[in-house]
Each structure stands twice: as structure tokens, then as C-alpha cells.
Amino acid sequence: MARKKTITKDQILNAAYEVVATEGFSKFTARNIAAKMKCSTQPIYLEFENMDDLKEALFDKIHHYLSTEVFPVEHTGNLIVDLALNYVHFAKNESKLYRALYLEEYGGGQRMQEFSYGYFSNAVKQDSEYKTLNEVQINSLHMGTWIVATGIGSLMTSGIITPTDEQIEDIMKESIRTIMERERPIDIR
Fold first, then answer.
1. What pLDDT digit, counting tens, does each position of 168-184 carry?
2. Nearest in space to 149 (alpha carbons), one of 188, 183, 110, 120
3. Which residues form the HTH tetR-type domain (predicted)?
């Protein structure tokens, strides 16, 4: 009779998430994940082909979390300002995970950039204020606001600056205005 599985795929993903969120991708190993679950590494390799397979599943989980719980929160009514505020709040409130995903060399790097651009682009195309923008304008707006939001988020996680949401909102509106003036005039709420 086969042994009943006591550790599920979701439990492994949750433990992997916890390792990355608290210690970064440099600690993303089967041994560290197993230690978090207080078991051997065997259940990990029964559920996932290898660590790359587990990392892919973890990124899917993280992308789902960001796209359903972090990025869509509305603060100001301006989609891009809200995205920037949500990104900065994520950086501040979950600084270790933020660093692991966006700043560490072991993290998602290009993959997180592509995910963030895809989320931004799709959201902008559905927003009444920005839906007439073409791909070049969307790319320009994303690049400019991403740089500003990443700068703010990184400096906040390092404890170097502590701007208020209102200050961040003003900075983002000015960034949007400056970027869009090069493309076409736009009214910023």
C-alpha cells in the first residue's frame, strides 16, 4: 500500500514563499524550504520536477498575489498614481520580498520587469483616462513612472526617505505630466 502524502504542493509553495519573503532568493534551496516545513527534501521532489519547476510555480503564486491583492488597490482614482503607490507600499511593507523580487540578482529580475510591464500595459489600456495611448506612449509612461516608483520604494526600504502618500502622489503626477508632455498633453487628476 502506498504511503499517504502528508505534505501538499500548496504547503511547499507556502514554505518557499516564506523563505523568499523573509530571506530572499539566495536562500531558495530545497534544504531551506524543507527546514521551514520541518521535513526532508523528499516531498519537494515528489511534487516538483526540480527547483526550477518550484521557482516557476512560486512566481505564478507571487504574480497572482501582486495582480489581485497588491496592485489593484485604489487610492486616488488615477490608475498610474495608484499603481505607483501600491508598488511603493509593497516595497515598504514587504521589503524583504520586494528586494528579493526586484533588486536581488537571484530574484526575478527580467521576469518581474516583464510581469510588471504587462500588468501596467493591460491596466492602462482599460482605463478611460489612458486607453487612447499607443504602445510607444505606454512604454514611455511605464519606463518613467517605474524608475521613479522604484527609486522611491528602494530609498524607503533602506530607511533613507519617508515621504507621505501625498508627497508620493505629487511626485508621480509630476512625473506623468512631464512624460506625457513629450508625447501629448494629458489632464492629470
1. 999 999 999 999 888 65
2. 120
3. 6-66
